[in-house]
Specification:
Length: 180
């Protein structure tokens, strides 16, 4: 049985137990309404805490740190490029397509960083290809790509797709940088 299915099974069992306990509390005789409300609130808090713990455990099972790869987008542009979308390929397989809204682009202009992709890669070399579309200099449609080979070892890997204005060439520069 896969880790994901085991996790789901544990989640279902815990919710079933909660339903059973709640039914017993509600069916209890001779209890005051105030103590019943307190019991129910306590159970709700326990379920919320358990749900948080299950979510963290599920994330660790789905994206273990030894194989985890996260790709982020940042930009420092304004004059030479207006971002519309980014497509990310890992080993010639499209893993993410993202179409930006005006608000998201404004947030990136203010220094925000967006997580474009999170997934698993085994140790070794992997080719990342980022394809950017938008409006380039003089309002023309613009489509550019950047390629980078990531050497994945043990532990998580963080990669940044960076778009910056280059005043000397009056063009945007697209780079892919690994975080240390």
């Amino acid at each position: 049985m896969s880790s994901f299915r085991k996790m789901r099974l544990v989640h279902i069992v815990l919710l079933s137990l909660l339903a059973l306990v709640t039914w017993k509390v509600v069916a209890g005789e001779g209890q005051h309404p105030q103590s019943l409300d307190a019991d129910i609130q306590s159970l709700k808090q326990d379920v919320l805490a358990l749900n948080r713990d299950l979510f963290v455990l599920e994330e660790e099972l789905l994206f273990p740190s030894s194989t985890q790869v996260a790709v982020f987008v940042s930009l420092d542009v304004g004059e030479f490029f207006a971002l519309d979308s980014v497509q990310l390929k890992v080993n010639d397989k499209v893993v993410s397509n993202y179409l930006y809204t005006e608000r998201e682009v404004q947030a990136l202009h203010r220094g925000g960083v967006q997580r474009l992709y999170m997934g698993n890669l085994k140790a070794g070399e992997h080719e990342l290809i980022a394809i950017y579309t938008g409006k380039g200099p003089h309002g023309r449609d613009y489509r550019r790509g950047a390629t980078h080979v990531v050497r994945k070892g043990l532990g998580p890997k963080f990669v940044e797709l960076k778009i910056v204005d280059n005043p000397s060439s009056e063009q945007p520069d697209f780079s892919i940088k690994e975080w240390e």
